[in-house]
Amino acid sequence: MAAAPKVTCLSVPGVNVITNLNLSVTSGSAPYNQTALRIPPYSPEATALFAMAITLMMILTIVGNILVIIAVLTSRSLHGPQNLFLVSLAAADILVATLIIPFSLANELQGYWAFRSLWCEIYLALDVLFCTSSIAHLCAISLDRYLSISQPVSYGIQRTPANIKVAIVVVWLLSAIISFPPLLSLDKSKGGVEVCELNNERWYILYSTIGSFFVPCLIMIGVYIRIYQIAKQHTRCLPREKPNPNKTPGNKRFTFVLAVVIGVFVICWFPFFFSYSLKAIFPETCLVPAPLFTFFFWIGYCNSCLNPVIYTIFNQDFRKAFKKILSILWSLFELASQLATNQNIV
């Protein structure tokens, strides 16, 4: 999620406003002219550790989510149409790791926005888009689970790959609608200082936090409460009842895995959105320390690398698919190494 504007009660990472520096926008090849000494926000040691930790997180996010996509597309046991949601969610996490986190990291370590104004606008919109799309995917997955359990026959007929793909397109379109306002409400201060931040007005903060996080969270919680109630009713059914494919242990495990994914997402992002919303509700009295808010900010991004880990721990089909993919890659690596060795000998 794109960082919030700088406020009196907290200093926001990601796209900070450096109001004590003289920065001037130019139309030449360099976006800014430096007229004052910039002091890095961290020591060299802390900068190196921070950079290594976030770089490792980016690598894990990219590799893990690529494995998820390959597994769903190649493993027969994962060919269910509902898993297309996981492919799209993994793609969103990969985009976060490649298009958002590197620039957030550079901005965090340098203490100022060192890139062009146009990229600032694109960066902010994409950041909100990818975060919103992640939780929108989780909402869609929750509703898919609920319908498959509550209406197994009628929904099972409609639950085709084509319809799931349409639902994914709708998810991305709704996410784009929510993330579009940053392009129209960027706060650019006057006097030659280039500011890359979201609108700090109350309406936008409440709009973004409620639309991108709190409302979807309430929907998912309500849906999973209903799923739990239905599952409880099923356990009371007579043993003579015909078995339903949506009540099998495999489906129950998959529902549990998705519940874990949603729970981890909420745990990772709730501190940031809650702290961010405090600025709008209590602008004069919110007292979130800057280091704590920075921690909340980056914990949210860490969520992008956790889903593949959750699938590996809790889902046997994903474990088997990952092992198969990695074994094939290792065999190809050994073959390439052997060919290279033979060429050197010749």
Which structural class fits the helix and strand makeup?
mainly alpha
Taken in chain order, the helices and strands follow as EEHHHHHHHHHHH
Low-confidence stretches: 7-35, 188-193
Please state the average pLDDT score: 80
Question: Count the strands?
Answer: 2
Binned, the helix content reads 55-70%
Report strand %.
under 5%
The largest sheet is:
2 strands, antiparallel
Considering the protein shown, what is the CATH homologous superfamily? Answer: Rhodopsin 7-helix transmembrane proteins
* CATH T-level topology: Rhopdopsin 7-helix transmembrane proteins
- Output the strand order for the largest sheet: 1-2
Q: Number of helix segments?
A: 11
In the CATH hierarchy, the architecture is Up-down Bundle
The total tally of domains equals: 1
How far apart lie the N and C ends? 54 Å
Could you name the CATH class? Mainly Alpha
User: What integer value in Å does the Rg equal?
Assistant: 23 Å
Shape: globular
